[in-house]
Every structure is written in structure tokens, then in C-alpha cells.
Amino acid sequence: MIYFNIPPLVGEELDHIKTAIAAHKICGDGMFTKKCNAWIEEKTGTARALLTTSCTHALEMTAILCDIRPGDEVIMPSYTFVSTADAFVGRGATVVFVDVDPKTMNINADLIEDAITDKTKAVVPVHYAGVSCDMKKINAIAQKHNLYVIEDAAQGFGSTYHGKALGTLGDLGCYSFHETKNLSMGEGGALLIKDPHFAEKAEIIREKGTDRSKFFRGQVDKYTWVDYGSSYLPSEMNAAYLWAQLEKEREIYNARMRSWDAYYTALKPLMDEGIIELPFIPDGCVHNAHMFYIKVKDCAERTDLISYLKEHEIQAVFHYIPLHSAPAGIKFGRFHGQDVYTTRESERLLRLPLYYGLTVEEVAFISDRIKEFYKK
Ligand SMILES: *Cc1c(COP(=O)(O)O)cnc(C)c1O
User: Which of 83, 177, 346 to mutate to test the pocket of ligand 1 (most atoms within 8 A of CB)?
Assistant: First the structure.
């Protein structure tokens, strides 16, 4: 069976976890967490990076930092993972969905302004498949209407937009290191903070509402409860796993890119014949080979292709059910404007196996089966 995903493992993970255990430091914010934070800060150029227990939790932290309150509205695409919405719904906000651009499956920046009301507090672009949203347009709209821009860059680690790392383009950015993402720590994520005034507040929120981080730096002589917070620190054992991967970040990136390029080359003839569509990378965007998807004619064709690939021991999967049509989406949100593309395109998108360790032979095998499917 060629699985859709196998979590990345580069080899040194267990050694680093043993080091954490031997140092008797397995809770959060030890040596490995600090190394990971510093690595992300250096490579992305963000003012501050904090490892978190998940991207979902990093998003929750942004909702607290931006003081999202009941009645506020937050604009996002409907074609996203539930966490993008959950983080703001948890603070009592209404989520306002707008349609996607079918070329990238990212929020259509041209539709955002019309969805803004006097209750709107933030826009949450989601960089689908690690391909950047139109951040120039989104940031300009946000600036004009005084809104926060919070990037759901869960899939965007290692990608850039006009040379800048995804997650550093808005006010706040969130990465995921879940086992399905390019780099992993099992469950985990990171919060990227542009404005230093948010940094201290973020440390407090992440440490149960205490100024414990300042205490550990010797900036205060005792720590206390200073604000609302929760526990968003990952354990050192998770951070140790991630550290091994950060050390091999380019190797993982290059291997995934080889698979992505091999799919693109092999399947391009089907695109040229107008049978399927392949991912589109806009100018100025460098992606991270997070995902390789194809778009087929419709939902029925997709179901047939999934079965055909399954018969050949290949696991290919569809993706999001648009949030606005889900029970919680109906309860907590509304779709602004027409759903021209969100539902239609989501029903014909199919993701192919892509993980660190997938071989070019396997990519060729999968591509051949897809071509075979269309010959019959
Ligand atoms: C994976 C993902 C998340 C959630 O990440 P976790 O680390 O599992 O919480 C959120 N948004 C998007 C777009 C994702 O792909």
C-alpha cells in the first residue's frame, strides 16, 4: 500500500528525545524548544516565534491577543480546516466566509472588502497547499479598514511570498507541526509575532496567564498571575523531535519538491489535454511541496478514481468539506456573497500521496495508474 502520508522521520529524533530525558527537562521551554524558536526566528525573520501545542492553539492565542469578543466578525475562506474557525468561535466571534479563487483554492482577495462590516476585526488568510494568498491585496485592505491579518500558515512552513516567509506577512502567523505537515513533532505548532508589543502578552497567554517567562529570564524576581491565559507549551520531548527535523529542513524540502515536480511532469500531458487540472503557483510565490492535488471533472469522477487507485493499493484522499455547509458552520458563521467555487471545486479536488520518503518510482507508478484510468 502506498499511504497518503507517513509522518517524517529523519533519524536523530530519538537521540534528541533521550537527551531531553537525560537532562531531566521534559516540560516546556527547555533547550529544544529554545533551539526551535531561535531557528524559526532566524530563518523566517519574524521578530518572535513561540512553539505551541498545535496550530489550533496558536490560532487560539491570536484570537486572545487580538481581543476578539462576542459579536466581532472574522473573515476567512470556507474551504479550510475547522481550526481556522474554531479559534475565533471560541471567543464568541461570528465567522464570515468568502469564496475562494479556484486557481489556488485560497481566499479571493477581491471579495474581502465587500464582506467587511463595522464589526469586522480580522482577516484570516489560509495558505492552501503552502501557496501564498494575495498578501499585498489583503494587507492593503486590512490597513485601510484597520483589521488584523492573522495567517493560517499551517501548511506554509518553508514557503515564501516575494521572498518573505509565510507566517511573517500579517500581524500574526501560525504554523502546524502535526504529523501530516512537512515537518512534525507529532502534535505541535508555532506562533509568529511581528509586533514586539504582542510578544510579551503572548508569553503570558502561553504560560497560563503568568509572567513566568520573564521570571526565567531574571526580569522579575517572582512570577504571578497577570492576565488570562492557558497552557500552550509543548513538552520538550515533542520539541526534541522537531529539532531533528529542523536540522534536516532542506533535505525534507528537497525530497518533497522532487516528488512534487515528478508528479507535475508526469501528469502535465493530462492537463494539456484538458482532462485534469494541476496546482497553480502565482508569480512571486515559492511553495514548499506540501501537497500535490489534481482537479478532476466532478465528484463522481473523483469517487471512481479514488476506488481505482485503491484497487492498485494507492491511498488518495479528498480534502475539506466547506465549513459553511457543516452544522457548526451554519451555527457560527455565514457565507458572504455567492459560493461560486468553494463547493464546486472542493468536490473535484483529489490529493495524491506525498511525504518524506516517497520514491520517484512510486510517484511514477501512481501517475501511470491515473493515466491508465483516463485511457479506459
Ligand atoms: C493542519 C491545519 C490546521 C491545524 O493544525 P494543528 O497543528 O493540527 O492544530 C489548521 N489549519 C490548517 C489550514 C491546517 O492545514
Answer: 83
